[in-house]
Design goal:
Blueprint lengths: L5 E15 L12 E7 L7 E2 L11 E11 H5 L4 E8 L6 E9 H9 L4 E10 L2 E20 L3 H22 L14 E4 L5
Antiparallel strand pairs: 1-4, 1-8, 2-3, 2-5, 4-9, 5-6, 7-8
Length: 195
Amino acid sequence: MDKKNDVLCRKFYLTLISAENLPKVRKIFKSKVYAKVSFGGDKKTEQRTKADKHGELNPVWNYSMKYTIVESGIIHYGLQLVIKLYCKSKLGDRYIGEIHTSIKDLFDYAYTRGGSANLSLPMKKSHAETGAILKFSYRFGERIQEKKQGFWRKVLLPGAFILLRVAGIVTLGVDVPVSFSRKHIIVNIDKLNKK
């Protein structure tokens, strides 16, 4: 294994358990609440639960997610776990509230408990507490080594996108925006085998 091309990572397992005492955001119909999870609000890291159709203001999900996080994202305070709750609506889903917590704080707390923990955190909306509580459990896996992005993803793939964009301008007379990221990926979503 070529150590120069490896990066230290940890698996991060998260289970959203439930929420309690949510504020009512729908006046007439039943509240069907779901959660969106991301790191720092980055859409590329976003996963969501199914909507609870029965619990209304006290939803229960017991929904598990799995990520791979680069070790430097865990040991520094910058990376935030963001969990936002929404109520489904045909006229547009309604925002209920959210929690933000540092991955480093989660790691430090779990480390003293054998690598896993259960938490109940107060939810906020517009920086004010809502009186609602979000319950979740999580654990960090052992350190693992993963390969960094190879030459294809770093150099050739962006070059291919640029060629496609130029070809679109020349042949169609239309600038087709193509995006790619050169940043090193800190968090990856891992697929869980759902039963």
